[in-house]
Amino acid sequence: MAAMKVVRNGMKKTEIMNGTFSAVPVSNGTPANIIPVHLHLHNTYELQDVQANHDRSFYRGMLLFHFLKDLHTKKLASVYDYVAEEPFKMSWNDVKKELGKDTLYELSNESPMAISELIDKHHLFMQRMIHYFESLGYDGFHYTNYYEDQGHISYVPFRPESVIRLDSDSVVLSQPYNLRSGEKIQLPGERDLNLDEFCTMKFEKLYRLENTTEKRFLLSNNRKVLLRPSSFRQMLHEKAYYSKILLSDILPKIELITNQSRYGYHGLTHTEQVGMFGIELALSVHQDPLPVILAAGLHDCARTNDEYCEQHGPRCEPIARKFLADNYPDMLPIEVESIVTAVRDHTIGRNASDLVSACLWDADRIRLSWEMGYAPEFFSTPYGKMLASLSKEKQDRYIGWQERFLIDNKIKTRAQIEYDKAMNAKQNALGTVFKIKER
Length: 439
Known about the structure:
Strand content: 5-15%
Distance between the termini: 39 Å
Order of helices and strands: HEEEEHEHHHEEEEHHHHHHHHHHH
Structural class: mainly alpha
Radius of gyration: 25 Å
Number of domains: 2
Largest sheet: 3 strands, mixed
Number of strands: 9
CATH class of the largest domain: Mainly Alpha
Strand order of the largest sheet: 4-6-7
Number of helices: 16
């Protein structure tokens, strides 16, 4: 969305000037081009945003913090010296020879004197650092952006194969590529910090504390942070975050334009549950949850009764397009089309065209499986198949866990949950009352 804003303003790039970002217009009249991509990342390590100054000194400070805090030790492992110190003591020929063992950098054919030795040694430092984090199972970095794209998550993939263009015939992979372990990563031994490292470490700790405070501020102000989970705890945090967006931001807007009533078999409580399922399904396949919960919010807005009806999906398309244009004007066209396709085809589609459709369709069909029996051919995601196939005992356990999750994260109270249950039961007995009667 930030890229779309830049393009709409006729800008080509951004530059840092006096601590702030100012847009630089396109000089030759050539329109800027946004290339949609799929980031094939499964486990990213969190950095701090330092206003685009992610240079060698930053990464050395980050490594110090990692070894001394994340690994819970007071001494530096010798692998730190191998990654952060040794490359700057090596000859240019040795640096070039080692860089050539991987494909991270394209080496120049120019003579050694024509290339900066510092830059090449910096490249070796970065290559060894990537090998180290890959040996731990990471495939990139991420950080909450506080400057040019405030409130969103920026990603730094390690490998070019992690970036898959969506405007070409590239295949979006479902499995992670093989991570490199690198040489000499598991070196034994450790040493004490020197004075310079101690000062760097103190600065890094201070900066992380400031960044944590800023991050909490951004989250509390309902920023749409788009973050692929890298741990179960992070998944729970993201589920809570998107649940709050669904219930407090999206559904109140949907209520203004939908045919649905609050309660009933296909009322807004059903839409809410589809959205909650959708968040978990999106996180399970590393899909940005925002398009999924928007699709979930819109998927039944054109319904006029509780009966089997294939046409309410296609009838929802113009409603969905207007809703997204009015409320999310900076959303990329490819995201809009993905949401509209998921909503339009959820009653008539047979094979999900992308992950947004897969997550919405699975989320909408879980209740049917619980009531009428599980048919695996109607599901696209492994997690969706697992939820849909739960026994009655496990369904009750899952619902209880879901309710505790909402209460523990202060999204709903127990009284609200019990009231919704009672009103749904009453409305289901009478039949859902839609705002517009079928003609």
